[in-house]
Amino acid sequence: MAIVIVDDTVFSLEVTKAWLKAAGYMDIITVKSAKELYRLIDGHSERGIVEVDLILMDIVMPEINGIEACQSVKKREWLVDVPVIMVTSRTDRNDLQLAFSAGAMDYIKKPLDSVELLARVRSALKLKHETARRKARELELLEVTHQLQAANERLQNLSFFDGLTGIANRRNFDQRLLQERKRSMREKNPLSLIMLDIDYFKAFNDTYGHLKGDDCLITVASLLVKTLRRPGDFPARYGGEEFGVVLPNTDDIGAAVIAEELRASIERANIEHISSPCADHVTISLGVVTRFQGHLDNPNDLIMTADRALYCSKNQGRNRVTI
Ligand code: GH3
Ligand code: MG
Ligand code: MG
Ligand code: MG
């Protein structure tokens, strides 16, 4: 980390450098013009990339003066936190005003006084290091915040989505059903619910193994998602090989059509199931219930009624819809 002195007068450069060295600052770089300073800070001098800690800048210099040079330094994003102390023989208030608006942090009057110079250098460096530490802490905090947000999202995902199929889980389903039931009461719209269950799935597992059984559950879930076209329709894994679909703003006729589409889409997928007594491929049984104004106001009643319809489908030979 270097202290850079910019001054067109060699005597000033040498005296300032000597004082700073005597005070224990070892890396002092002297340059005689703004142009030479730019070469240095942009890494074009023989020293290559230089880490600058502080700049002492003479104001009165030929060609480019110190105020302009300070402005130019502060335009470099990597130097915004590097303090610039202006050094001037002028006492013109206007000059000082300009120096501060150019981004200078302090100024010292010529002729220089070694005690004053060292005191101002020390305090500028202290402030710079404090700023750097604070920024590092802020960055760390930001990083931790991002990590927490990501962890939170992962947790949310785990608690609301089924790990195997990726669709909503039971908890998510219960919440949505409750919410949609309230909305249906408020807006006086019908609400439908489909419960569905894979037929002879135990036999499927016994024949093809549990891993193939898992694959089948994933396929069925994705077919449900694909077949439901309206954005409000909400499929979920209710548990095991049973799924639930919430259909907001849907009457019994609409729900029956959707249920039949779901049944047909699983049948069309033609997933081999040689041990099924009702077909040579995987099928599902479905139960549909619709809530109209003034009846089935309790979400549990809705689920129980849909379940009863589902078991009717099972009893009547499976692979069918009961309303
Ligand atoms: P039914 O037509 O009457 O519904 O007969 P079923 O064999 O499908 O019904 P049953 O309730 O007897 O069996 C359900 C099977 O689903 C048993 C269980 O091992 C299986 N199952 C539940 N969850 C999973 C799972 O996550 N993965 C796999 N592979 N199988 C599961
Ligand atoms: Mg000068
Ligand atoms: Mg089953
Ligand atoms: Mg079951």
Can you lay out the helices and strands and say which pair or pack?
Layout: E1 2-6, H1 10-22, E2 28-31, H2 34-41, E3 52-58, H3 66-74, E4 84-88, H4 93-101, E5 106-109, H5 114-160, H6 170-187, E6 191-198, H7 201-208, H8 210-227, E7 234-239, E8 242-248, H9 252-269, E9 284-291, H10 299-315, E10 321-322
Parallel strand pairs: 1-2, 1-3, 3-4, 4-5, 9-10
Antiparallel strand pairs: 6-8, 6-9, 7-8
Helix pairs in contact: 3-4, 7-8, 8-9
Bound molecules: 3'-deoxy-guanosine-5'-triphosphate and magnesium ion (MG) (3 copies).
Task: Describe what you observe in this structure.
The chain is rod-shaped. The model has no long low-confidence stretch (mean pLDDT 94). Helix 4 links the parallel strand 4 (84-88) and strand 5. The protein is of the alpha/beta class. The chain has helices at 10-22, 34-41, 66-74, 93-101, 114-160, 170-187, 201-208, 210-227, 252-269, 299-315, and strands at residues 2-6, 28-31, 52-58, 84-88, 106-109, 191-198, 234-239, 242-248, 284-291, 321-322. The relative contact order is 0.09. The protein contains ten helices and ten strands. Helix content is 51%, strand content 17%. Strands 2-1-3-4-5 form a five-stranded parallel sheet, with helices on both faces. The structure holds 3'-deoxy-guanosine-5'-triphosphate and magnesium ion (MG) (3 copies). One magnesium ion binds at residues 7-9, 58, 60-61.
Largest sheet: 5 strands, parallel
Largest beta sheet: strand ordering: 2-1-3-4-5
Helix content: 40-55%
| Distance between the amino and carboxyl termini | 80 Å
Query: Mean pLDDT, rounded to whole units?
Result: 94
Tertiary shape: rod-shaped
Question: Secondary-structure element order, as H and E?
Answer: EHEHEHEHEHHEHHEEHEHE
Q: Give the bound compounds.
A: 3'-deoxy-guanosine-5'-triphosphate, magnesium ion
Radius of gyration: 38 Å
Pfam family, one: Response_reg
GO molecular function: diguanylate cyclase activity
Keywords: Phosphoprotein
Domain Response regulatory: 2-125
